[in-house]
Amino acid sequence: MIEYLIGVDGGGSGTRVRLARRDGVELAEGAAGPSGLLHGIAKAWASVEQAAGQAFAAAGLATPGRERIAVGLGLAGVHNPEWAAEFVAANPGYAAVALESDAYTTLLGAHAGRPGAIIALGTGSVGEILRADGTRREVGGWGFPAGDEAGGAWIGLRAASHMEQVVDGRRESSDYARAVIEACGGNRHAIQVWLANASQTQYAQLARIVLQHADSDAEARALLLEAGRQVALIGGALDAAGTLPIALCGGLAAPLRAYLPPALLARLAPPQGDSAAGALRLIQQHVKE
């Protein structure tokens, strides 16, 4: 018999879980390392179990047998159907498993399961909508470097391009450009080594420099205004009629708010819950069915 529900928000940087009783009363939270499916199925399950164990400990409970637990998960990488099927097949014994993308559980959490849209802005970006008729649609989320407009890595890549032009003398230098140059090694040779090895996460770290200089540097501000325009394009593609609320989520949601077009700002609603809350809602519905 199912006694506990666990909602999981899992991505490439970490895993957060929320523990609740079967009746939905939340008890505690836990955290662990990455559980995005790109990192491997076994590692994903290990992170989920570690975070769940931490949540039970935080609630002052001994971890019960898996057959008494149902798990809802919003994980990065679910768009790869082979990975998703392999993950579910590797269920280590939980009574029930409901798996969706982290974008969808973010959507469920943000609007408490009601119709609405989200635009998640972090290292990458993605938008998703749940319509009144129950249909869903995703916009963006194509991945770095070809997509993920307005995400941290997208911003950082453009900051790096500006840095290259300044180093070459094609553009004038500035405190902003010098800060990016310093972050990438300080000289042409070191920058080339940095560029050859930089990950999506490292590019995203450059976005902080852009944000720090946006009030004093026209180039940095223009880049963030373009990011805001890209967010608005995602919103328009999600719901051209403008009938549903949009929640901005993720680490860049608050910093980019000042650079969004007024028409999009008028449509924004604060998220009511996060992806872990949405994953709990997902497994609650699954268990009822």
How would you describe the overall organization of this protein?
The chain starts with a strand and ends with a helix. α3 (102-110) crosses α11 (275-288), α4 (152-168) packs across α5 (175-183) and α4 (152-168) packs across α7 (200-213). The chain is 45% helix and 19% strand. The chain is an alpha/beta fold and 289 residues long. The strands form two sheets. A five-stranded mixed beta sheet has the order 3-2-1-4-5. The chain has a four-stranded mixed beta sheet with strand order 8-7-6-9, sandwiched between helices. The mean pLDDT is 95. The chain has eleven helices and nine strands.
Provide a short characterization of the protein structure:
The chain has 289 residues and is an alpha/beta fold.
End-to-end CA span: 15 Å
* Poorly predicted regions: none
E-strand count: 9
Report the order of strands and helices.
Answer: EEEHEHEHEEEHHHHHEHHH
- The number of helical runs is 11
Task: Give the rounded overall mean pLDDT.
Answer: 95
Strand content: 15-25%
Radius of gyration: 21 Å
Largest sheet report: 5 strands, mixed
Structural class, from helix and strand content? alpha/beta
Strand order of the largest sheet: 3-2-1-4-5
Q: Which word captures the global form?
A: globular
Instruction: Estimate percent helicity.
Output: 40-55%
